[in-house]
Amino acid sequence: MASWTRDELARIGAAEELQIAPVRDDGTPRAPVPIWVVRDGDDLYVRSYRGSDGAWYRTARAGHHAHIAAGGIDKDVALAEENDPGINDRIDAAYRTKYQRYGNTYVIPMVAAKARATTLKLLPRS
């Protein structure tokens, strides 16, 4: 598995939104959808606002691959489920900090148990 470059981490981590196109079982991508992305150290994470009800998330979880675009970076990624409570606490803090200007209406659902259970780590593919 490849690693993120410092430039990719900086640009994707600072992007307001990330376009994600999960890959279906037959190898075709879904239409891209905009979602929020946060950075924790040298890692990037996404969650489904709708929890496991999110269509993009169901496809992503089934196939564990997607194409992303954010901050001028286009990349194929693997998707790994993140269940570590300590890491998820840091991701919650990252969402609260990065997206605080949107207020509790949008941030609270992103740090609630339903969304937290859908945390995916983005892993660059070469």
Automatic annotation (TrEMBL):
Q: Tell me where on the tree of life, at the top rank, the source sits.
A: Bacteria
Concerning InterPro entries, the annotation shows: Split_barrel_FMN-bd, UCP028498
Family matches, as SUPFAM superfamilies: FMN-binding split barrel
Name by which UniProt lists this protein: DUF2255 family protein
| Naturally occurring in which organism (per UniProt) | Nonomuraea jabiensis
